[in-house]
Design brief:
One of its GO terms (molecular function) is actin filament binding. Keywords: Coiled coil. It comes from Perca fluviatilis (European perch). The protein contains five helices and no strands. By secondary structure, the chain is mainly α. The longest helix has 90 residues. Helices cover 68% and strands 0% of the residues. The radius of gyration is 37 Å and the shape is rod-shaped. It has one domain: Substrate Binding Domain Of Dnak, Chain:A, Domain 2 (Up-down Bundle). Helix 2 runs parallel beside helix 4, helix 3 packs antiparallel against helix 4 and helix 4 packs antiparallel against helix 5.
């Protein structure tokens, strides 16, 4: 039998997707519902057993062969006594089932409390991860727009370089300087958000693995508890049911698995790069690579205006 574990098969390629986690939670909720159903079943069975026991006990007290003598009278008395013994055995069964139902209820509540803390932590991480990813993507859009604004401002300076209107040139130059500052500010914010979402992702990866291990442990404990309960009180299991808990876990994993690879980190994408880095890269525990621009061009240079840095592979625009 293969050793299949939750932590290896419930990932999603999309950083903001929680499909794998949701599948595990649904499985645990279904298990909790089963516990409740078994608990209610045993309580109902106990009530039936108790009523049957009382009816049998009352029956055993009724007159039966009062006028008979000798061996037949002894046989009839034994028949009544056996009925009384049967009633007592069913009464004991009712009491035993109520006790087991109580144990099952306590087991269910114990698992619920243990899950509650983990689920609250994971829910908070999912919200943080989704929020930070959105913030990163929004800052990326802003950064790209500010870069376009800077290019347009630089082009306006270049196109009006030979005009005699000094005030107009100064105004264009001021706008270009401000656009440059805005693009650099947006770049820094975008880059910082990439680093932050990388840290959030790393934290979520670790906690997701821990949660998977804890949830799998709970699932195995539940299966084992219910199996023992049924075996002890019903004693009607076939050999097929007396199997290891891992088989049920393996069946669930094979049926509901969502992916074996966690989402890769969000990568920084420089606006001026001809061939940008992929948005999703192979999983890594290292922070995303940092690509910074060099000094921006001087708008006073009337011969050539560069819209990018001097690094190899960057585009160059001449006017």
């Amino acid at each position: 039998m293969k050793n299949l574990h939750f932590k290896d098969f419930f990932w999603n390629s999309d950083l903001t997707c929680t499909g794998g986690y949701d599948a595990i939670i649904q499985y645990l909720n279904d298990g909790k519902r089963t516990c409740k159903e078994v608990e209610d079943f045993m309580k109902a069975r106990a009530s039936i057993e108790e009523k049957y026991a009382k009816d049998l006990l009352g029956l055993s007290k009724k007159v039966c062969g009062h006028n008979e003598m000798n061996s037949l009278k002894r046989s009839l008395d034994m028949f009544k006594l056996q009925t009384e013994h049967v009633s007592l055995s069913h009464l004991q069964m009712a009491q035993s089932m109520r006790e087991e139902a109580k144990k099952l209820e306590e087991f269910k509540e114990k698992q619920k409390e243990a899950r509650k803390k983990i689920e609250q932590q994971m829910d908070a991480l999912h919200k943080q991860k989704s929020s930070q990813y959105k913030k990163t993507m929004d800052s990326k859009k802003t950064y790209e727009q500010k870069c376009r604004d800077k290019e347009e401002a630089d082009q306006n300076v270049n196109r009006n370089a030979n005009t005699n209107n000094t005030k107009h040139i100064e105004k264009l130059y001021s706008k270009a300087q401000q656009a440059k500052q805005n693009s650099e500010d947006a770049d820094r914010l975008y880059h910082q958000n990439v680093i932050t979402v990388g840290k959030v992702r790393d934290e979520w990866l670790k906690e997701h693995v821990k949660a998977c291990e804890m949830f799998e442990k709970q699932a195995m404990e539940r299966i084992n508890f219910l199996r023992n309960t049924v075996w002890t009180h019903l004693n009607q299991l076939s050999q097929q049911c007396v199997t290891s808990d891992e088989e049920d876990i393996e069946h669930f994993v094979n049926l509901r698995q969502t992916g074996e690879k966690p989402p890769g980190p969000v990568m920084y994408e420089n606006f001026y790069s001809v061939q940008r880095s992929p948005t999703v890269a192979p999983p890594s525990r290292l922070p995303p690579p940092i690509t910074r621009r060099g000094p921006l061009p001087d708008p006073n240079d009337n011969d050539t205006l560069y819209s990018t840095v001097q690094d190899a592979g960057y585009s160059v625009i001449q006017y």
